[in-house]
Backbone:
C-alpha cells in the first residue's frame, strides 16, 4: 500500500519516512543475520557505531519490522544521546507507534522530539504528528490546540497548510461549528488563490452536509463553483456538483437535482454515482457503460480459481479483489512497494500477520506473500474483515486498504448520511481519495464485464 502526502486535512500517511532509502528483501535478510551475531550470550544487542544502529533501524523500519527498528533507535538514545541522528530517531519511533496504531505511545515520543528539538525539521513534524495522533485518540480539542500552536510557532513550516485545515476538521469534530467556520475564512484568506483555500471551502461544504444544513450546503457548493479553482485541491467540480445535487434532493427540489446529476460527466467516479441517481429516477438501465472502451485485455480475470476459493467463499465479490489487484500491483505477483508491501494485493507483513492463521497459512514468512495463492488468501481474509467492519461499503473498504482502518472509520463516522458519495468526499488523504476513485471505477467496469463467478457476460 503506497501512500503519499498532499495539502490534506489530516497528515498521516503510510509511506515510510526513512533515513536514506528503501531497502530490498536481500538487505533485510543480511541485516537480520548481522543482528543475530551482534548479541551477547544473554541475547542483548551489542553496542555498534551510531551510524550502524541508524542504518539497521532504517532497514527494519522500511520493511515494517518496527520492534526491531526501535531496538536500534533505543541504543542510539542510550549510548549516543548527542548524535545527529537522535531527532529523526525520536520522530520515527513515534511514527512506528502510529503505524502500529498505538497513538498514546506515539504522542509521548512526538512530544519528546518536539520539546527537545523544536528548531529542527523533525521537531516541527513531530508537533504535527502529535496532532494527528490526538485526533486518532478522539482528543480533537487537544488536537486543535496542537495545530494552532504549530501555526503560531512555525508560520512558514512544512505543515502549515495542512495544520490550518486540520484545525477546521478538529473543531468540527468537537461541534464548535462557529469556530470552524471562522478558521475556514482565515484559511481562505491566508491561502487565497491556492489549493488550500479551495480545501477550506470544501471543508465547510462537508461540514454543512454532515449537519444536514442543506441550504447552507448549497450555498457552500455555490461558493466553490464560483471560485472554480480545483487544480491541486482535494475536490473537483464533479464532486461539488454531486454534493449540491444531493442537497437539492434532500430539500425536495428533485427536478433541479436530476438536471445537475445528469450534467456530471459519466466517466468519473461521481459521474457513475450520478448516473445511478438519474437511472433510478427514470427507471431505466444505464445512461452509458463504463466498460464501453474497456476490454478483457485491460481488465483481465487472472487467478480465477484462487479468487473464487478465497474471496467468494468469504462473501467478498471477487471482482472487487481484482479491482484492488489491478490498482495495487498491476497483477505482478513479485511486486514490492517502497512501504514494503508485497505481492498481488500489496500486503504489508505486519498486516498479513493478523490474518494468516485464519487464511490457513500459520507458518507464513514475509516472502511467502509473493506467492499468488498465499497473497490472495490472506488479502481476501483481510478484505472480508474490512467489509464486516464497514457494513459492506466498498468505498470504505478501499479507503481503509490504502489509508488505514482507523482513518476510514473516522471518515465514515463523519459521513452523514452514510452514502458512498458523501463518504468519498470525507476521505482526507489526497492519494487515498484518488485510490478510492480508481478502485471503484475498476470495480464498476469489472461488474459490467463479468458475473460474480468471473464469467464474461
Residues:
Amino acid at each position: 500500500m503506497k501512500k503519499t502526502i498532499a495539502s490534506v486535512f489530516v497528515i498521516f500517511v503510510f509511506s515510510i519516512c526513512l533515513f536514506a532509502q528503501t531497502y530490498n528483501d536481500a538487505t533485510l535478510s543480511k541485516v537480520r543475520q548481522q543482528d543475530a551475531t551482534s548479541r551477547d550470550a544473554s541475547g542483548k544487542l551489542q553496542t555498534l557505531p551510531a551510524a550502524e544502529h541508524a542504518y539497521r533501524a532504517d532497514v527494519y523500519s522500511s520493511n515494517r519490522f518496527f520492534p526491531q527498528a526501535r531496538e536500534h533507535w533505543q541504543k542510539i538514545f542510550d549510548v549516543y544521546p548527542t548524535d545527529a541522528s537522535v531527532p529523526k530517531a525520536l520522530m520515527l519511533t513515534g511514527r512506528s507507534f502510529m503505524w502500529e496504531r498505538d497513538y498514546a505511545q506515539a504522542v509521548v515520543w512526538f512530544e519528546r522530539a518536539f520539546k527537545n528539538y523544536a528548531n529542527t525539521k523533525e521537531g516541527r513534524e513531530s508537533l504535527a504528528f502529535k496532532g494527528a495522533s490526538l485526533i486518532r485518540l478522539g482528543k480533537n480539542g487537544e488536537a486543535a490546540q496542537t495545530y494552532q500552536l504549530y501555526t503560531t510557532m512555525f508560520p512558514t513550516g512544512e505543515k502549515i497548510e495542512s495544520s490550518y485545515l486540520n484545525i477546521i476538521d478538529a473543531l468540527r469534530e468537537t461541534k464548535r461549528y462557529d469556530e470552524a467556520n471562522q478558521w475556514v475564512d482565515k484559511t481562505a484568506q491566508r491561502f487565497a488563490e491556492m489549493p488550500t483555500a479551495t480545501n477550506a471551502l470544501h471543508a465547510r461544504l462537508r461540514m454543512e452536509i454532515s449537519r444536514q444544513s442543506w441550504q447552507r450546503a448549497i450555498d457552500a457548493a455555490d461558493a466553490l463553483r464560483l471560485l472554480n479553482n480545483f487544480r491541486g485541491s482535494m475536490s473537483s467540480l464533479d464532486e461539488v456538483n454531486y454534493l449540491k445535487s444531493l442537497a437539492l434532493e434532500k430539500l425536495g427540489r428533485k427536478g433541479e437535482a436530476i438536471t445537475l446529476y445528469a450534467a456530471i460527466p459519466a466517466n468519473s467516479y461521481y459521474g457513475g454515482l450520478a448516473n445511478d441517481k438519474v437511472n433510478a429516477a427514470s427507471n431505466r438501465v444505464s445512461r452509458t457503460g463504463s466498460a464501453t472502451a474497456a476490454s478483457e485485455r485491460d481488465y483481465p480475470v487472472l487467478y480465477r480459481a484462487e479468487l473464487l476459493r478465497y474471496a467468494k467463499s468469504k462473501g467478498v465479490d471477487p471482482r472487487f479483489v481484482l479491482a484492488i489487484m489491478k490498482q495495487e500491483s498491476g497483477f505482478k505477483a513479485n511486486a514490492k512497494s517502497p512501504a514494503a508491501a508485497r505481492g498481488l494485493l500489496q500486503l504489508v507483513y505486519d498486516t498479513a500477520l493478523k490474518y494468516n492463521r485464519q487464511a490457513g497459512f500459520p507458518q507464513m514468512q514475509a516472502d511467502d506473500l509473493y506467492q499468488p495463492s498465499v497473497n490472495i488468501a490472506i488479502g481476501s481474509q483481510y478484505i472480508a474483515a474490512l467489509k464486516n467492519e464497514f457494513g459492506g461499503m466498498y468505498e470504505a473498504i478501499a479507503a481503509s486498504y490504502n489509508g488505514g482502518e482507523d482513518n476510514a472509520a473516522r471518515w465514515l463516522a463523519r459521513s452523514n448520511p452514510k452514502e458512498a458519495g458523501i463518504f468519498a468526499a470525507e476521505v482526507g488523504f489526497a492519494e487515498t481519495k484518488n485510490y478510492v476513485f480508481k478502485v471503484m471505477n475498476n470495480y464498476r467496469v469489472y461488474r459490467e464485464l463479468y458475473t460474480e463467478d468471473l464469467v464474461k457476460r
Q: What stands out?
A: The radius of gyration is 23 Å. The CA atoms of residues 168 and 183 lie 6 Å apart. Residues 1-21 have pLDDT under 50 and may be disordered.
